[in-house]
Design goal:
Length: about 180
């Protein structure tokens, strides 16, 4: 089972989320996880076509997805959308911003709509909102994993509970992709 995580990260904070999500997905037997940073060069469209699940992630800037992630979304039109190469694949999303709320939901809605246009099956977060900084889903997202990072080194932020929330989403995506694959 191939799970691809396509992400953008402006300063390294969202990359930490992507890596945590990958670690969670790898806990599932049979999961092969690929991290694809859109800033690293050409998108491996063939890998995405072969994937059973694709998880999208980027920082939330000015209440929306990052410009590089938007560019990836637009580039998918000819590569994947017109031929519907991602139809029935599992999809999920994650985002990060400097503010606790930071309009992150808007980014996740954009990702979910993008996935829907590709005919994908969206997987949300199945965690009740945490009530403290130590609890999972402390930001309170249902549509995907949300994180908050201070303006500091990515080694310090996002905090552990946000990374554990991303790992939880990775495990959930892998479990659901495996279940659908067996059906």
């Amino acid at each position: 089972m191939l799970i691809s995580i396509v992400y953008d990260s402006g300063y390294g904070h969202t990359a930490r989320q992507a890596h945590a999500l990958a670690e969670g997905a790898r806990e599932r037997d049979g999961a092969d996880v690929r991290l694809i940073a859109v800033a690293d060069g050409p998108v491996p469209w063939d890998v995405l076509e072969a994937s059973d699940a694709i998880v999208f992630g980027c920082p939330t800037y000015n209440g929306s997805v990052s410009a590089r992630f938007k560019q990836f979304m637009e580039a998918s039109t000819r590569a994947a959308w017109i031929p519907q190469k991602w139809r029935d694949k599992v999809a999920a999303g994650f985002t990060n911003s400097g503010a606790m709320h930071g309009d992150k939901l808007q980014s996740l809605v954009s990702m979910a709509l993008f996935a829907a246009q590709h005919g994908m099956v969206w997987v949300g977060l199945d965690l009740f909102p945490g009530k403290s900084a130590e609890e999972l889903n402390r930001v309170g997202g249902w549509l995907g994993a949300m994180a908050q990072s201070n303006d500091e080194s990515p080694e310090l932020s996002p905090i552990d509970s946000d990374l554990k929330t991303a790992a939880h989403l990775g495990r959930r995506v892998a479990a659901i992709a495996q279940r659908l694959q067996a059906a």
